[in-house]
Amino acid sequence: MVLCMVLSWIFIHRWSQRNKKGPKTWPLVGAAIEQFTNYDRMHDWLVKYLSESNSVVVPMPFTTYTYIADPANVEHVLKTNFANYPKGEVYRSYMEVLLGDGIFNVDGELWRKQRKTASFEFASKNLRDFSTVVFRDYSLKLHSILSRASFQGQQVDMQELLMRMTLDSICKVGFGVEIGTLAPNLPDNHFAKAFDTANIIVTLRFIDPLWRIKRYLNVGSEALLDKSIKTIDDFTYSVIRRRKAEIKETQQSSENNKMKHDLLSRFIELGKDSESDLTDKSLRDVVLNFVIAGRDTTATTLSWAIYMVMTHPHVAEKLYSELKTFEEDQAREEKVSLLPYDTENLELFNRRVAQFAGLLSYDSLGKLYYLHAVITETLRLYPAVPQDPKGILEDDVLPDGTKVKAGGMVTYVPYSMGRMEYNWGPDAASFKPERWLKEGFFQNASPFKFTAFQAGPRICLGKDSAYLQMKMALAILCRFYTFTLVPGHPVQYRMMTILSMAHGLKLTIARR
Ligand code: HEM
């Protein structure tokens, strides 16, 4: 009898959903089963539902997730009613151990203050000039490794090399420290390892309901997390102490021209001028948040961009031709005579690459519109942050009429947004850098439609810096190399907060 009632209840529940868009739900567990069984391909699972409807409501056992892909809804959440959609306590409690009170992990006044200081820093010419030199140096280090691999006919995992490149450069820009993971022998580094481990484990918390128990008992992944955080903190605090001592020394000897331009030094300096001297803990949080924000996002985008270029030969040729023309024009403008080279002669080849890199500056890179379009088109289809959830403080109604409830989550989904015909037209799924160009010049789209960098008051602060590094690296790589995927190597995303490639990007390389 009871069984009969339960079955009828389930039947009525499912029948009432026969015309419902979005995943069908079960009593009590909502859509958890369907979401769980599609977990590894969740971004594409959402593409299917969001192409049928602007918003998809996914009831879960104790909460409801609402996914949105329509620019009007996105603008409402990220800008118009910004105050109602904070990061929220759930995110904060998961990430606190790594991000502390850094900009990524706070809302309200604490966020506003950091945003103001950091925006000021990011607009500084000193930081931009320093970053340009760092990005050029590390792109050249990457080239040395590729050049050697190409002469020896070795395969490389490009994603791994790019992760090393972006970690080394963000540590140099952030802390002023050379950590050297891109040295020719590709060494292990305690900080880099601990940083990777901590990043993976805090991300796992979002799908591991037992993490709080493991943390309480200090076992398994949570014990490893504790150890990794200690390594990260030891390293960071020792750099902070060293920088503070150096700054004091420089000021006493009044050698102001020796002032460092890394972010940490700048924040130590700024802290001294304001009423509240920044504590070592706040400095640690500030700088680590930038390292986390800038490292995987940039390396992942570069990996997908290289994959897109090599799987679209007409794009590779168009890009090559833009870079060759740029090289000749820029050399003429700077009155540099280009060195002759031969791809079979390592020394001559390396000298020409270094000469080309010398022509790349913040201003000259601004002339490479097609390169800019290739990167932007990559981010449209493979956004480094594929979905970005927000908390909901009070019940609200989105512009398309979807109701959201306090305590739930609303997530804008850049991965789906880039693939929606209602956003980009019938060729939405095709990789076409040309869609960003008008009469040869790059044209931006609304940040509420192209959401790879988020939009509104919390839009990414490192966007220009990221483009600078990506353009620097890709200009050198696509001018002097062609890439071929190792036969049979699977290219697919890993399901985590950043859209990295699950198996890396295994390539062979040829010089050109
Ligand atoms: C391709 C590269 C990048 C992409 C796609 C990207 C994307 C994003 C996205 C989606 C957010 C919003 C995340 C959230 O909800 O909090 C964000 C925030 C942020 N990004 Fe980036 N980012 C990139 C590179 C960088 C770099 C290189 C830096 C700095 C070195 C940086 C610094 C930041 C900061 C500080 C925030 C927090 C802003 C705030 O909350 O006010 N990003 N970025």
From TrEMBL:
Cleavable signal peptide: 1-16
Cited Pfam families: p450 (PF00067)
Binding locations of heme: 460
Required co-factors: heme
Keywords: Heme, Iron, Membrane, Metal-binding, Monooxygenase, Oxidoreductase, Signal, Transmembrane, Transmembrane helix
Compartments where located: Membrane
Stored InterPro entries: Cyt_P450, Cyt_P450_E_grp-I, Cyt_P450_sf
GO CC terms, sorted: membrane
Highest taxon listed in the record's lineage: Eukaryota
Membrane topology: Single-pass membrane protein
GO molecular function annotations of the record: heme binding; iron ion binding; oxidoreductase activity, acting on paired donors, with incorporation or reduction of molecular oxygen, reduced iron-sulfur protein as one donor, and incorporation of one atom of oxygen
Family: Belongs to the cytochrome P450 family.
Name by which UniProt lists this protein: Cytochrome P450
Provenance organism: Malus domestica
